Amino acid sequence: MKKTLSLLALLLSVLFLxxxxxSTADSTKTSQSSSAGTVRLIxxxxxxxxxxxxxxxxxxxxxxxxxxxxxxxESKGFITVIDGVAQDEEKGLYWMFDVNDELAPKTANKxxxxxxxxxxxxxxxxxx
Length: 128
Known about the structure:
single chain, alpha+beta, five-stranded mixed β-sheet, three-stranded antiparallel β-sheet, 8 strands, 36% strand, globular
C-alpha cells in the first residue's frame, strides 16, 4: 500500500511539474510573438522630455505607438493633444514629429513603425 501511495504521489508531482512547465513555455512564446520590436519614443513637452524604448505590434503605425503610451487627441491623423498639452493654433504652434531624425512626410496614422525606429514628438511653429 505504501508503494502504491508513493508511486501515485510521484506520478501526480510529475504531472503537476509538466503542466507548469508547459504553461511557462506557452506564455513566453505568446509574449515573444506579440511584440514585433521596440522603438525609441521621445516626447518633448516644453521643458520636459520623455525618452523611452517601447514595444509595438506588427503593423502598428506611429499613431498606434503614441496612443499606447500617452493620452492623445487627434484629427484626421494629425496630433492635436498629447497628455493634455494642446497645440496653439493662434501662435501657429503644432505637434510635429520626426522619424529617424527626419520630419515625417505623412500623418502619424499613415506611417508604419519598424524595429529600432526613433520617433520624436515636439511642438513647433509651422511655416508653410
